[in-house]
Design brief:
heterotrimer; A mainly alpha; B mainly alpha; C mainly alpha; B: mainly alpha; two-stranded antiparallel ribbon; about 75% helix; C: mainly alpha; Helix Hairpins
Chain lengths: ~160, ~500, ~120
């Protein structure tokens, strides 16, 4: 079954009401998460909070449509890949600071405080942290809910 | 400014992630990346021996505001131990870990643990000490349970619960220290505390620190997790846990915080003396009754860490030298013993002494290295363990603690007894029928244990031939860093960090 | 309105509850709850350390002078520490939960006193 059929299958996930609402809300949740991440250096929030909100969008999908649909959208392979990419980029940006003389030096132009493009590499760090946290939390959620199901003797 | 310092944390951290990514393409790559990473960090640690005291300002933010990495004599010897043992353990894992699935995940966690330990010994402020302590701890919880069988999971869970409790205690101590001094930079805290009368709050903080770090190092009233966790882990991890983790996270962190930050009040020294003596005796006595080889060695670790903490608690210069020397030696021979036991388990499938015997005929290499390790740890000359134990006993006597000197001597006899038992039942005697077809272990495993055995003998001979020079290069800077806290209230440490 | 001291006392009581659950309870999940309660009590403690009654957010802007900000703002450092410590707590909690699931799969029980293959 492809993704469309899976998401229309009434035997999976919750009721039609929940599914419809989730489908409508999900894009807004992602948008809000991106806002929190991108404005992280000038408003409350940041990479960690924004990453969690991004995860929540996918967790919503998982709860409403069931594990299969969520896994088809973002498999645990890609979750772990994005997790690694986020962490690696974060370390790489630390090493890039060494070009300016120090590990984790804020080597980009600082700009003027309060503007969106300011604070040098901090917005970049926020984006990578969001990738790392969001993907890792999603992988944990998948691990505990889908793979973590206790397999009893009868099922084996 | 020494630019290699952040590499020791950054490289293993980055490679831990990269290893996992690359292994999706081919599992073989993980072997190579892990090997190269630990080779590079061990190389860096070697080049740093004898380097002058230096501070690294992360991101160019100067202390006490920024995060700083501090390198001094004590850090130097710890980095050497951590990265050397990690390198040899990785070589050993190349063939030992074949029997487990998910080898790349093992390497990734292993490198994370190395990054955490390097961070703990390099960190110049209390909160980063805590963060790196947690990185190393979380990686080690997962590694202890790596086999995912009954015993591994049980041991991992116990270790996790007690380890988290310990970390929470450390964080409580850090919180109180911050509220009293308004700073987290170790040198700045030490500087502020020097000008303050001692308060109940700081005593409470010191108690929380001692409890947390004692739990991490497995000293006796807090040792419940250690004899479960060390035998259940895969052999290279047992070697890392016993050889370096309990020292970097427990003994080093306790020594650094007690001597260089809180300022070595006599009452803290007495507590360390008492904890050390208790661990030394109880660990030794409990080890005698064990029939599981790794469990026996785990109890032996408790006993030997007791020696180190006892010597630290003496607070004399000779005590410091003896403690650092024993710390260095113990990490070498205990990792040697755990790796050798791993070889025995790999070949025979058991670590129960009742089912072993006569391995000397079938596994000459492993038998020789096990013998060298056992002779070293029980303090037989000319191996390295003899000299450090002699120094500890002399230091006790010099400090006027005749009772402790006698106790240390008696426990070293007990050590000899249980290692003779281990050797008698594993290496000598009749070869059981079930073990007729065992073979010697493959080359990478043999290479690691032989290297460690050579280092054991080499350190002993080096000390015998050129004792003063050896002390001068390896032990004196570390002992000076600790004595600085006792004699002049860490003033040279504070100057190095804040004045530099 | 609670005074500062009583907040500290309540926080320590919360921590005591965590330690009690950790030591006295045999159920694995209850032990985990104990550990988490303890961690959160410490986080609360750190927040209390930086708390200032009637304080303002430590954000620099044009309307407030630097000296005034230093006098009135809450201490931002403990908040940064707590954020880090919460992340660490999340990692530990995930590991504890997965270990609990695996332990149940192997031992068919959540009772810690029945999970006792390691003795001696």
């Amino acid at each position: 079954m492809d993704l469309k059929e899976l998401s229309r299958d009434e035997s999976r996930g919750m009721t039609l009401i929940v599914k419809t609402i989730s489908r409508l809300i999900m894009s807004f949740v992602i948008l809000f998460g991106c806002f929190i991440i991108i404005y992280g250096h000038i408003t409350p929030g940041g990479g960690f909070a924004g990453g969690i909100i991004l995860t929540i969008a996918y967790v919503l999908l998982l709860l409403a449509f069931g594990g299969k649909v969520a896994m088809a959208k973002l498999s645990n392979f890609w979750a772990s890949m994005w997790d690694n990419i986020g962490a690696l980029s974060f370390v790489v940006i630390g090493f890039l600071g060494m070009t300016g003389g120090y590990f984790f030096l804020n080597f980009l132009d600082h700009g003027s405080p309060g503007h969106l493009v300011s604070a040098g590499m901090i917005p970049l760090c926020n984006i990578f942290i969001a990738l790392k946290v969001g993907a890792a939390l999603y992988a944990i959620f998948i691990g505990l809910s889908v793979y973590g199901r206790i397999v009893t003797e009868e099922e084996k | 400014m020494n630019h290699t310092l952040p590499l020791l944390v950054g490289i293993p951290l980055g490679m831990a992630v990269l290893t996992l990514m690359l292994s999706k393409a081919s599992a073989r790559i993980a072997d190579i990346t892990a090997f190269l990473t630990t080779l590079v960090t061990a190389g860096i640690a070697f080049t740093l021996v004898g380097a002058p005291v230096s501070t690294y300002w992360m991101g160019g933010w100067f202390p006490p505001f920024g995060i700083s990495l501090v390198f001094d004599g004590l850090t130097s010897i710890m980095l050497l131990i951590v990265n050397l043992v990690a390198f040899l353990a990785i070589i050993y894992s190349l063939s030992y870990m074949e029997k487990y699935t998910a080898k790349p995940k093992f390497y990734s966690l292993f490198l994370l643990m190395v990054a955490g330990m390097n961070g703990v010994v390099l960190s110049g402020d209390l909160f980063n000490l805590f963060v790196f302590l947690e990185i190393a701890s979380i990686a080690s919880y997962a590694l202890v349970g790596f086999g995912v069988e009954h015993q591994e999971l049980e041991a991992s869970f116990k270790y996790l619960i007690l380890g988290t409790f310990a970390s929470t205690m450390v964080l409580l101590g850090i919180g109180i220290t911050y509220s009293m001094t308004g700073s987290l930079n170790m040198a700045d805290v030490a500087n502020t505390l020097k000008g303050m009368p001692s308060t109940t709050s700081m005593a409470f903080a010191a108690g929380a620190f001692i409890m947390g770090f004692s739990l991490k190092s497995g000293l006796v009233p807090f040792h419940a997790w250690l004899p479960d966790a060390h035998p259940s882990a895969p052999a290279p991890i047992s070697a890392m846990l016993s050889g370096v983790l309990i020292k970097a996270l427990g003994v080093y962190a306790m020594a650094r915080v007690m001597f260089n930050v809180l300022g070595a009040a006599p009452i803290y020294m007495d507590i360390m003396l008492a904890l050390g003596a208790l661990s030394m005796v109880v660990g030794g006595l409990l080890a005698v009754g064990q029939w599981d080889m790794k469990r026996m060695f785990a109890y032996s670790s408790i006993s030997q860490v007791g020696y180190i903490v006892l010597a630290l608690g003496l607070g004399t210069h000779l005590g410091m030298i003896a403690a650092i020397f024993h710390l260095l030696n113990h990490s070498i021979f205990k990792s040697l013993l755990f790796l050798s036991t791993g070889s025995i388990e790999h070949a025979t499938g058991t670590k129960n002494l009742r089912k072993l015997g006569g391995l000397g005929q079938k596994m000459p290499v492993t038998a020789t290295t096990t013998t060298i390790g056992a002779l070293s740890i029980s303090g037989v000359p000319p191996f390295n363990g003899f000299f450090s134990k002699l120094l500890i006993i002399l230091a006790c006597a010099q400090a006027g603690q005749w009772f402790l000197a006698a106790l240390a001597t008696a426990v070293s006899v007990v050590t000899l007894v249980y290692f003779l038992k281990a050797m008698r039942f594993s290496l000598f005697g009749e070869l059981p029928k079930a073990l007729k077809n065992i073979k010697e272990v493959p080359f990478p495993m043999a290479f690691s244990v032989i290297t460690l055995a050579v280092i054991c003998l080499g350190v002993g001979i080096a000390y015998l031939v050129a004792g003063p020079a050896f002390t001068e290069i390896f032990l004196q800077p570390a002992a000076d860093a600790l004595m600085d806290g006792i004699r002049n209230g860490s003033s040279s440490y504070i100057n190095a960090v804040l004045g530099g | 309105m609670l005074s500062h001291t009583s907040l500290y006392i309540l926080d320590m009581a919360l921590m005591g509850m965590g330690v009690y659950a950790l030591i006295a309870k045999r159920h694995i999940i209850k032990k985990i709850i104990g550990v988490v309660t303890m961690e959160y009590a410490i986080n609360l403690f750190l927040i209390l350390v930086g708390y200032r009654a009637g304080g303002i957010a430590p954000i620099e802007d044009a309307q407030i002078s630097a000296a005034d900000l230093a006098a009135r703002a809450v201490d931002p450092l403990p908040q940064a520490l707590v954020l880090t410590s919460i992340v660490i707590g999340l990692g530990t909690l995930a590991l504890m939960a997965s270990l609990a699931i695996k332990l149940y799969e192997k031992y068919k029980t959540f009772d810690m006193s029945e999970i006792n293959r390691l003795r001696g």
